[in-house]
Design goal:
The protein has about 180 residues and is mainly β. About 10% of the residues lie in helices and about 50% in strands. Strands 1, 2, 3, 6, 7, 8, 11, 12, 13, 14, 15 and 16 form a twelve-stranded mixed sheet that branches. A two-stranded antiparallel ribbon has the order 4-5. The protein has a two-stranded antiparallel sheet with strand order 9-10. β13 (about 140-150) and β14 form a beta hairpin. It is globular and about 40 Å long.
């Protein structure tokens, strides 16, 4: 019986060591998508499509924990929400409700699409230690833009398919100054 007890004890100790060795050294800071973004850039492209009367801007938003170096490379751990091809009536993002759409009409933006593994339109990057660990394409939604005393309030209601293929909703916001994107 003593031999069996020693074997069971050895298996228990080995199992404990293995389980602790498999734990990540530092757990991920973000377990869910952020409810707020703390840094935002507005990329201004102007009237770049001859067939459309709308001007184009894009939004590049970053959660807490993310910064950009002098070459605009992402540093840190957090999330990056990107919306390309936002169709605006003039040249900048103005107050109103914008919805995802492919018409190119003012107050619309392109929905997210996955083209052969590359995201386009609207998507969310999950970043840990300066590296992209996952990409979530956001397939539809809307954004409300309000200007309050020089600060932009951006309220997002966005939709995507979760890991089970079910439609999921993502609500988030940004309040602050939209920084102009400066191409390097």
């Amino acid at each position: 019986m003593k031999k069996v007890e020693r074997i069971i004890c050895a298996i228990g100790i080995l199992g404990f060591v293995c389980l602790n060795a498999c734990k990540p050294s530092q757990p991920s800071r973000y377990r869910g998508m952020p409810k707020e973004y703390t840094l935002a850039y507005e990329e201004i492209y102007g009237h770049c499509y001859d067939s459309l009367s709308s001007a184009i801007v894009a939004l590049d938003l970053y959660s807490e924990g993310i910064t950009l170096d002098k070459n605009h490379r992402i540093q840190g751990t957090g999330y990056n929400l990107y919306l390309s091809d936002i169709f605006v009536p003039d040249s900048l993002l103005v107050n109103g409700t914008y919805r995802s759409d492919t018409t190119g009409l003012p107050f619309t933006f392109l929905p997210g699409r996955d083209y052969e593994g590359l995201p386009h339109g609207m998507y969310l990057l999950n970043i840990e230690e300066d590296k992209i660990i996952s990409i979530q394409v956001l397939d539809s939604g809307y954004m409300v833009v309000k200007d309050t005393l020089g600060q932009k309030d951006l309220l997002f209601t966005l939709y995507y398919k979760d890991i089970y293929g079910q439609r999921a909703i993502y609500n988030t916001h940004f309040t602050g100054t939209l920084l102009p994107w400066q191409k390097k």
